[in-house]
Amino acid sequence: MTVRLENLDYLFNPGSVAFVGATQAKVKWGFIVFNNLVAGGYEGNVYPVNPRHDELLGMKCYPSVRDIPYDVDLAVFTVPASAVLPAMADCIAKGVKAGLVITAGFGELGKEGAALEAELVRKAEEGGMVLVGPNGQGACCPANHLYPWMPLFYPRAGGVGVICQSGNILNMLIGHALDAGFGVSKAVSSGNEAQLKTEDYFTYLASDPATDVIVAYVEGVEDGRRFLELSRAAASSKPVVVLKGGRTDAGMKAASSHTGALAGSAELFDSACRQAGLVVASTIDQAGITASSFVNRPLPAGRRVAIVTGGGGLGVIAADACTDMGLEVPRLSQATLEKIGALLPDYWVPGNPVDLVAGLDLRVIKPILEALLTSGEVDSVLFIFIESQRSKGIKITEVDGQAVELGVIWDMMTQKLGEYLADLYVMARDVGVPLFVSSNFEQVGGAEPGTLGGGKNPMVYLDVESACAAIAAMSDYADFKRSIS
Amino acid sequence: MTVRLENLDYLFNPGSVAFVGATQAKVKWGFIVFNNLVAGGYEGNVYPVNPRHDELLGMKCYPSVRDIPYDVDLAVFTVPASAVLPAMADCIAKGVKAGLVITAGFGELGKEGAALEAELVRKAEEGGMVLVGPNGQGACCPANHLYPWMPLFYPRAGGVGVICQSGNILNMLIGHALDAGFGVSKAVSSGNEAQLKTEDYFTYLASDPATDVIVAYVEGVEDGRRFLELSRAAASSKPVVVLKGGRTDAGMKAASSHTGALAGSAELFDSACRQAGLVVASTIDQAGITASSFVNRPLPAGRRVAIVTGGGGLGVIAADACTDMGLEVPRLSQATLEKIGALLPDYWVPGNPVDLVAGLDLRVIKPILEALLTSGEVDSVLFIFIESQRSKGIKITEVDGQAVELGVIWDMMTQKLGEYLADLYVMARDVGVPLFVSSNFEQVGGAEPGTLGGGKNPMVYLDVESACAAIAAMSDYADFKRSIS
């Protein structure tokens, strides 16, 4: 293959973009994607291409890419499948560096479509152009306000890189990064992967300084050996989380008609991925949540977890989940238990999980977490904060003529907790013991999950099972990193 | 045992409530729970009991329950553990029918606590009083605006009954019912279950006409045979979803210090539960989502699922998930595929999942779903609606001097879809083929999940994996129902 991977820079940071198939019919992708490119805030030059228009969105429209009298770095295609090849020939003649083909109707349609797709690749490689797609929803690079894609959605810039053979799963994984308080470095809906494969994007993102972690949805892998080699190389420099679609017969059939993917044995693929240092997720949510878990957090040195919980039931669920996922919930030393016990009511039962027994004095939480982080007895600390739902417009009851709004008292207490946690994240980083915080109702100390510390701190988990899965994934990845160091 | 289960009516529908341990210190459960009882809107008589006060929240306060000159149906206890027994003696003397002991410090503390707990039970049974707890967060019955519990939260009335040996998991399961657009019939945090066990609440709720489905978190089962017998009897009349905590060594240890539960082998318990017709969930979210799945929806007649998806990737994930969970994604007949194909673009690849290939004409969705519901070829239909995130304050671009707000166009299209779906749910009920709708971004036709049709229609799923798990659970339960009919 003669892929000039460095030309991917022109996909994410082009000086100018030609849009082949721009139109004014509002319920067509040729309008929606084009409008996103313009309205998303991209500051480079945009050249709509459509022989049936002189002007679109107030811009001069060209009959073909050849007719554009300026340099073009990136070309986006939404014209029908039959029109892509001739338009690409124009791009090659023009010296376009990267092509983003959104148009469907290629390899996923069978033999004839696959032949047309192969021709596209041949043409692109002849001209040294990188080819993204076809049959994807587009790509984005928020740092450059560049959103040539389908959704009416311009996520913010951050450290999560996302590669998906599915546009809708791309959007969901991006949603997870945003929910966690982070943003997106680069995102690509890789579609049929006619030329550039998932592993090529891994290679690119692995050396992209803006990307902290990579998350991917993979349907088909054409060359398993190449995929694993390049994946391993990428995983050696930063965490790569993958979700595999088409693991079952029914799923494979669906994948084949979706992106023309050919899938192999799910178990083999899974274990090969793990050996290559990839973090393998089993659901979309798990992939998204696990990826963000790596941001702003040290890797654990081992598998021992201390659990501190505001409510016993969630401690039980967390202990079960940790054990299920190959983590340990070790007995704590007498000294540590005594230190903790001194802060809790008489009816506290010493142990790990440390159950805060529904205590209302939230000031004890900080010293308890500190004791565990610095104990040397555990490699990760999971704190399960219990915030209950709150009814709006709760009635105020008078006590001795004084208005009592319980929610306000609770907010004051939890706000302090938010401050404690920000301090504790610093301590956790200093001692190299990651701190994971789960809160069952979207708030810790009045802050949305992940926003605690303005996205500078680790994410907060909405369910304990996800937090445990993240600890296990990070422990696995830490093992891989140690194995190659 | 001499449990008068009918007295549980007095827990949920008391004419009067004595609150033993009411206080005015705002950061004490004796205030918070008492305040919730009053502020939640309960219309019966409330009698605070505390020898150190003459008046609380504007109500006359009594030194003991004996001193209340009126009938008392329910007594709530937040006094310290050592004070519960004498207060209960007063209640027995007074003829109180139900006792709700929130106080902790009993069986979960070991031998001494267990002895005190046994004494409580003896005393209660002597007087024919049902005993809820100790060591729970309380209970609620929204239809009676009755919320004698810890959270500052008054969920609305509806068909989901919730029983939990953990207060925080109770709140989370209730949250799921509300998110699904439904409400709560009765909810109990059963705590240490000194007298009334999970299976007793099952028995009660099984004959409660306000309860459509029961969901429970179980930590320990004292008498496995009794649990399974009563569970089976309950499951014979309505669906019962259970989540088991303490499945692993670490979890069991935590459960034992949380509610004094003694746990057995997880696998044995699981399989026995399934044989008894219970639906066994493996995470808190799954328990909550699966329970609401049963509301307003017919049971499937078999395991064949048709998947219709707005995006290929989610179709692949759904096909994988269905297969993993023992469902079939069968090939559709040529006739059905042709009927569907006539509505879709040329580049559609016939198959199941039916991929709508990112088409923008949402009018085809209704006839496609109708064709599948009435095909006789499947037992459930899963429709995966793709709604992407939407950036707020999206810029408006001018076309021919006309303002274009793409979001508005999209809203108009999806609003129609909301109407279609309401019709389709009626058809689904008529033909006895349940319709499951998943939407990845909290909206279908502008409606919040579950609110489509004002809570009268089935819930909408936020992730396809949960929808598939629900279909599998409902198929299992349908099998059980057929096996006993």
Tag the structure with descriptive keywords.
homodimer, alpha/beta, Rossmann fold, 3 domains, 15 helices, 39% helix, elongated
Structure write-up:
Two copies of one chain form a homodimer. In chain A, helix 3 runs parallel beside helix 4. The first copy, chain A, has three domains: about 140 residues, NAD(P)-binding Rossmann-like Domain (Rossmann fold, 3-Layer(aba) Sandwich), CATH 3.40.50; about 140 residues, Succinyl-CoA synthetase domains (Rossmann fold, 3-Layer(aba) Sandwich); about 180 residues, Rossmann fold (3-Layer(aba) Sandwich), CATH 3.40.50.261. In chain A, strand 6, helix 4 and strand 7 form a beta-alpha-beta unit. Chain A is elongated, with a radius of gyration of 26 Å. With about 475 residues, chain A is an alpha/beta fold. Chain A has a six-stranded mixed beta sheet with strand order 8-10-9-11-12-13, with helices on both faces. A five-stranded parallel beta sheet of chain A has the order 2-1-5-6-7, sandwiched between helices. The interface between A and B is large, with 103 and 103 residues.
